Amino acid sequence: MSPPVGADPDPDTSTPPDSPPAAPAVTAATQPPSPTKTPAIATSASEPTTPAEPSSFSSSPSLTRGATTATASASAYGLQAPSATATAPGPSVTQTESKMSRRGLMEQDLSKLDVTQLHPLSPEVISRQATINIGTIGHVAHGKSTVVKAISGVQGHDILMATMLNGAAIMDGALLLIAANESCPQPQTSEHLAAVEIMRLQHIIILQNKIDLIQESAAMNQHEAIQKFIQGTIAQGAPVVPISAQLKYNIDVICEYIVKKIPIPERNFTSPPNMIVIRSFDVNKPGSEVNDIKGGVAGGSILKGVLRVNQKIEVRPGIVMKEESGRIKCTPIYTRIVSLYAEQNELQFAIPGGLIGVGTTMDPTLTRADRLVGELLPPPEATGREAVRTSGTERASRVSKLAKGEILMLNIGSMSTGAKVVAVKNDLAKPALTAPVCTNKLEKLALSRRIEKHWRLIGWGTIQAGITLDVPPCPL
To answer: Domain Initiation factor eIF2 gamma C-terminal spans what residues (predicted)?
Structure first.
């Protein structure tokens, strides 16, 4: 079962990961024919945007973004978490259902749920939640936030390389922004493309933004530079769409390319559910009465399986402590789902795709200020690992080899953690992690090194082995 991805500190000001680390890090396109159906879309790894009024089968793409993020609040997930004693709403709430149907939301009935018959385009699914995650990537100030606003109507803000790596773990596709008025590639353009390559992301659309600021000849010259830049990369052959996000020029073409270029991903609905936690919140206001306290909320994307209201779940690694002997101890958190939300839409069940808010009976102090970022729920088949061996580390000859004793930042799933290299032999390295991580053998990870006060992506590896930590048995 796959892992998670971490926090959002600025790599320019973050502390080194010896202590718990602050996470790392043209030719005019021919407009394709209009599609008959458009899947709901989320542009991944950060918070979802305010949705347009959905229809049962087709709706314009709604984006929540990856390398750019929308509002960083629980309300962005549509979360008004119920109290810890709340129960799943019953099917008899006819007034609510009538109101839902007027909004174009198809009814979800747990008593009739058959996961073997589910599909991302099932009306009861697509009318309520996004089914595809699309990220925006590219260099700073190249227009990631502006293009998201042009498509979805919601302004965002840039996030950092570390979080971009984390968000790539749940992306189904990506929009690569390249500013037409600057040379190509810029540093983060290369790093972000390398990151999605590490995450095996195959569906990329390149947006040559700010086309209104340059002459046609300059645009053609940069188009040639873009083609040279992507040659031999996972983006080779990707469409290059000239746009002006500020003037909303060719935004309709982007939407149609999203529909035509990025297919509906195959999802696994029958396996035990596994969700990667990207944000976590305490939705209680200061001064709330004890009886009004609501349980903690986790936000993220489901990797496989189906989550249901009233389902008991486990959060791993959970509460991490260091014993007097120096041994790390992990205690999983056991809780129950009391609500599920996708943007403002209440769900009875949630499937892979989009960003889901999970209200629980958990102590809200455990979810406050993103404390659960990088956790998994429910548990994977393997327990957390505190040390790994990697292979395939260096991706460029100009990057110096890993050295024993140096400090790195690792991105494993949605978790960002510091690591000290304790041994190196040929293409194998053994980093000791500063925090345990839930992962599996052969899972990919990204390696970043601190270079001139910045965390810079230097390569990738695969987990070959690790130390499995003992966890106490489930008390339930």
So the answer is: 389-463
User: Quick check: is 27 in a domain?
Assistant: no
Report pLDDT for 399. Answer: 73
Cβ contacts of 371 within 8 Å, gap of 6 or more: 280
Asked if 225 and 343 sit in the same domain, the reply is no
Encoding tokens for residue 154? 């919601």
* Mean pLDDT per 10-residue section of the chain, whose length is 476 residues: 38 41 36 41 38 33 36 44 39 47 80 92 92 87 89 64 62 92 90 81 93 95 96 93 95 93 89 89 92 93 93 90 85 94 94 93 93 74 40 50 90 84 88 85 84 80 83 76
Which residue carries 């609905």 as its tokens?
A: 269
Domain count, the chain: 3
Residues 429 and 353: their CA atoms lie apart, in Å, by: 34
Residue 475 lies in a domain: no
How far does CA 29 lie from the centroid of its chain?
29
Q: Which pLDDT score is estimated for 396? A: 42
Amino acid 326 reads: G
- The angle at the Cα of 411, spanning 272 to 176, to the nearest 5 degrees, equals 95
Q: What is the DSSP string of 217-238?
A: HHHHHHHHHHHHHHTTSTTTT-
Structure tokens at 334: 């056991």
* Residues 414, 305 share a domain: no
46 to 3, 157, 160, 167, 286: CA distances (angstroms): 16, 11, 12, 7, 25
Q: What's the CA gap between 434 and 418, in Å, rounded? A: 5
CB-based contact 230:200 (threshold 8 Å):
no
The domain that holds 369 is classified in CATH as 2.40.30.10
Radius of gyration (C-alpha) of the chain in whole angstroms: 22
Regarding whether 179 and 51 lie in a shared domain, the answer is yes
Sign of CA dihedral 294, 304, 278, 146: negative
Residues 363, 422, single domain; the answer is: no
Classify residue 446: in a domain, yes or no.
yes
Q: Based on the domain organization, do 112 and 238 belong to the same domain?
A: yes
327 and 246 within one domain: no
* 346 in Cβ contact with 86 (< 8 Å): no
220 and 299 inside one domain: no
Ramachandran quadrant class, 181 (left: phi over 0; alpha: psi -120 to 50; beta: rest)? alpha
Whole domain around residue 367: which residue ranges?
274-377
Of 203, 226, 261, the residue at which a domain comes to its end is 261
Residue 227 within any structural domain of the chain: yes
CA distance 31 to 69: 28
The SS3 call for residue 115 is: helix
| Predicted local distance difference test score (pLDDT) of residue 225 | 96
Beta strands 356-360 and 376-377, pairing class: unpaired
Residues 408 and 367 in one domain: no
DSSP label of 33: P
